[in-house]
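User: My instructor asked us to take a sequence, write out its structure as tokens, and then describe one feature of it. I'm not sure where to start. Here is the sequence I was given:
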Amino acid sequence: MFSAFWSCLLPIIKLYLLGFKVLLVQLFSKPFRLPVMPRQDGKVAIVTGGGRGIGYEAVCHMAKLGAQVIIGGRDEQEGLVAVRRICEEYKEAKVEFIKLDLASLQSVRHFVQRFKERELQLNILVNNAGVMLVPEGRTEDGFEQHFGVNYLGHFLLTWLLLDILKDSGKCGYFSRIVNISSSAHRVGNVELNDLNSCQCYSAHAAYCQSKLAQLLFSSHLHQELKRGGSPLSSCAVDPGMVDTALYRHLRAPLCLVQSAIARLLFKTPGEGAATVLFAALSPALEGECGGGYWANGCREMTTPATFDPQLQLSLWETSVQLLGL
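Assistant: Let's start with the prediction itself. The structure tokens for your sequence are:
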């Protein structure tokens, strides 16, 4: 009994200690300011969770630069409101919404089908949508919610769009996949025998596992693309601690504290989106310079587990099997 209690408590302690450390570093570091990015006329981008927060800011900026942007999101009303706001602010903006529920593999497949029917190219895929510390539950297909939404849904989406991404890239103008991860991956463990967190559920552990899984996927995919000579790169980005709705599932006392602290100390969604946009648009990350893990505008080292080729491959093969690919 004590062992089970400790298994649930330890991830909470680790995550909040890490959060405190990250917040201190963020407070005493100069926030990254996005340089002027080149025009993106003729390019097409997909941003999951682009109806609010970091995703919305990324969509706004890319649309302002001339890219055609598709918002993929679960909340249709929120997505359509976002499209209207952007188009009112930037009269020439080419932005649209297509429903995408990452908790449903059928919805992911339907989203890709609708996109492919448009016969558009695809230059940028930003896997931004996510959930954090949600109550224990399962996706439509029976996967633990953090693992299913943050990781597996995006894995399937990326897999199904790989052919278009590869075809849209060319030498000197690579297509790009940007996966939004988190510093939480540093205290995460990928349990290949219990990816659905059935043995002892901890929302904190499940969230950290999903973020480490994203990073393993991003790294392995980039290496595979590089070996295959594809004009496509994959990187991961940690936007930092950002004042968004991601924290809404915190328990009541913590939620009130977080809300007060966030307004004073967290990054704004615009600041959080800066490194995401840098990874997606900067000429400095073109071709062989792409890939890696980015935070506050800089390439950073991650935990040793991230570079474990056997863990990367095992997770990849398990994911392919779970999705029936």
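For the description part of your assignment, you could build on this observation: The first strand starts at residue 44 and ends at 48. Try explaining in your own words what that tells you about the chain.
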